[in-house]
């Protein structure tokens, strides 16, 4: 990957709405170089989607997010891949990570309410033959996601003390 592509990725990661012309100006390169770099990154699936980070606590239609630790028995010849694929194909699953440590997969899901999340775990996830155990954690509040701080924090209001 070229240095230009890395710089373009960083700028798009900060704000995916930046257009190629602005990026070219910021990097001091031609518009064609930036368009070519972006096209190549998209074609090689380095850039897979342009997304919006939503602070759901500010929206009436608040969602319930849960993280589920999953212990599994790997499949012969495929390891964790087949089971991970089976899990990530469910529409309520937002992320699946292979982990080191006490469990094998970390699954992030979203539901309309606690009951919907519980139903997913008991009716879809747990019955998978390779799943040995699950442990579910509900996210109560998000302070920061994808580098974005959700809450407006107050500055330090203490008075300065001088000797």
TrEMBL record:
Query: What PANTHER family does its record include?
Result: HTH-TYPE TRANSCRIPTIONAL REGULATOR PTR2, TRANSCRIPTIONAL REGULATOR, ASNC FAMILY
* UniProt-listed Pfam families: AsnC_trans_reg (PF01037), HTH_24 (PF13412)
**Could you tell me which PROSITE patterns the record lists for this protein?**
HTH_ASNC_2
- This protein is called AsnC family transcriptional regulator
Q: Tell me the GO molecular function terms.
A: sequence-specific DNA binding
Q: Please, which domain of life does this record's source organism belong to?
A: Bacteria
Q: Which organism is it from?
A: Paenibacillus oryzae
Q: Which keywords does UniProt give here?
A: DNA-binding, Transcription, Transcription regulation
Which InterPro entries does this entry report, sorted A to Z? AsnC-type_HTH_dom, Dimeric_a/b-barrel, HTH-Siroheme_Decarb, Tscrpt_reg_AsnC-like, Tscrpt_reg_AsnC/Lrp_C, WH-like_DNA-bd_sf, WH_DNA-bd_sf
Q: Where is the HTH asnC-type domain?
A: 1-81
């Amino acid at each position: 990957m070229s240095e230009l592509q890395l710089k373009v990725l960083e700028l798009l990661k900060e704000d995916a709405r930046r257009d190629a012309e602005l990026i070219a100006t910021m990097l001091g390169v031609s518009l064609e170089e930036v368009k070519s770099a972006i096209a190549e990154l998209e074609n090689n699936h380095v850039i897979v989607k342009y997304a919006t980070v939503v602070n759901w606590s500010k929206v009436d239609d608040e969602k319930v997010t849960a993280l589920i630790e999953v212990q599994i028995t790997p499949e012969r010849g495929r390891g964790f891949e087949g089971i991970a694929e089976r899990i990530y194909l469910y529409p309520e699953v937002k992320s699946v990570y292979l982990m080191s440590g006490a469990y094998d997969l970390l699954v992030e899901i979203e539901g309309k309410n606690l009951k919907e999340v519980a139903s997913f775990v008991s009716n879809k996830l747990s019955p998978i033959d390779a799943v040995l155990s699950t442990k579910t954690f509900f996210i109560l509040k998000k302070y920061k996601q994808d580098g974005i701080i959700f809450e407006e924090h107050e500055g330090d209001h203490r008075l300065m003390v001088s000797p």
